């Protein structure tokens, strides 16, 4: 009886042991097998990466080898070539790869390729100049001596019709006496009177002044030289007491109501510039201000020394801010299609 109980207990323990072993085996198949399955490809991928590692020279990036060594050009140690780490494929062997930090330090900018009208930006440098078309020379109309100057220094403003000098002229006095003598014979020789009057008109005496001489019966050797334009005196050629001849320049007067921005353009930029193009220039003396205008003239003669041509931009003077010889910078945006 005791033997039978013992056998039953042994059979039961053996059965439980077999069940436990079977459970452990199934658990190993389910969990242990999947880990091995995952580990094997990962190991293979790592091995593949290690196998495909390229080495390059930091000084000669065109050198690429599949193993570590020396650069055949400079002899420096090769360094591992970094890949992009992206899934779309390997890097073009002829491409240059930069990190974001390196691209920022090199100031490299990129943009998407698109179809647009190409525009060329041309940088021009120059100065502000007076409009030559508005500049005039004030001359003496008679021979004589400068008795008085009403304009004494360069930069002084004058207005049209203002007396700028008084000239003492004996020849003028003789011409006035000839007019008075001809007036006595006006009935017999009227042409002589007209000739005497015309001579005084050539010396810029007005009809009112000539009529006054005839009425007063007295001549004067002094003649007033009046400004024929308004502007700024940019050149003073005489001093009080100087003797001058007819036609001698007394003053140079420039009208600054309209000015030029005169730029130097290199010959390589000339095909992109044409008369009528808009300009927008800035001045070193007035930072933050932009002045606009149009190209009015391009010098047809090239300077053989600087290889540049003068480009004149016409603009109206604003608030008396633009002064001759100020430095100006201009950027012209010229469509490249206009070259064709």
TrEMBL record:
Spans through the membrane: 9-31
GO molecular function: transition metal ion binding
Domain CusB-like barrel-sandwich hybrid: 140-254
Gene3D superfamilies named in the record: 2.40.30.170, 6.10.140.730
Domain Heavy metal binding: 55-80
GO BP, sorted A to Z: copper ion export; plasma membrane copper ion transport
Alphabetically ordered keywords of this record: Membrane, Transmembrane, Transmembrane helix, Transport
Similarity comment: Belongs to the membrane fusion protein (MFP) (TC 8.A.1) family.
One cellular component (GO) term of this entry: outer membrane-bounded periplasmic space
Domain CusB-like beta-barrel: 258-329
UniProt name for this protein: Cation efflux system protein CusB
Organism of derivation: termite gut metagenome
Ranges of residues in domain CusB-like three alpha-helical bundle: 171-217
Tagged with keyword DNA repair: no
């Amino acid at each position: 009886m005791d033997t039978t109980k013992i056998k039953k207990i042994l059979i039961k323990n053996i059965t439980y042991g077999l069940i436990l072993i079977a459970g452990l085996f199934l658990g190993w198949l389910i969990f242990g097998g999947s880990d091995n399955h995952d580990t094997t490809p990962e190991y293979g991928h790592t091995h593949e990466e290690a196998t495909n590692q390229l080495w390059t020279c930091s000084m000669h990036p065109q050198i690429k080898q599949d193993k570590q060594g020396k650069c055949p050009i400079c002899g420096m140690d090769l360094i591992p070539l970094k890949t992009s780490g992206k899934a779309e494929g390997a890097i073009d062997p002829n491409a240059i790869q930069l990190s974001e930090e390196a691209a920022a330090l090199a100031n490299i900018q990129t943009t998407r390729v698109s179809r647009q009208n190409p525009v060329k930006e041309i940088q021009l440098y120059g100065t502000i100049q007076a409009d030559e078309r508005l500049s005039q020379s004030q001359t003496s109309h008679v021979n004589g001596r400068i008795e008085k100057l009403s304009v004494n220094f360069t930069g002084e403003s004058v207005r049209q019709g203002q007396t700028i000098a008084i000239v003492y002229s004996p020849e003028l006095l003789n011409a006035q006496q000839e007019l008075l003598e001809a007036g006595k014979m006006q009935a017999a020789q009227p042409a002589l009177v007209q000739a005497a009057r015309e001579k005084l008109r050539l010396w810029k005496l007005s009809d009112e002044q000539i009529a006054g001489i005839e009425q007063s019966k007295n001549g004067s050797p002094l003649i007033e030289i009046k400004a024929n334009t308004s502007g700024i005196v940019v050149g003073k050629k005489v001093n009080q007491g100087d003797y001058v001849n007819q036609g001698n320049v007394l003053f140079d007067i420039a009208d600054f109501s309209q000015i030029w921005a005169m730029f130097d353009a290199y010959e390589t930029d000339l095909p992109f510039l044409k008369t009528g193009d808009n300009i927008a220039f800035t001045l070193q003396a007035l930072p933050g201000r932009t002045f606009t205008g149009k190209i009015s003239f391009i010098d047809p003669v090239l300077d053989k020394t600087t290889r540049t041509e003068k480009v004149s931009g016409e603009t109206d003077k604003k608030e008396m801010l633009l002064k001759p010889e100020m430095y100006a910078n201009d950027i012209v945006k010229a469509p490249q299609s206009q070259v064709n």
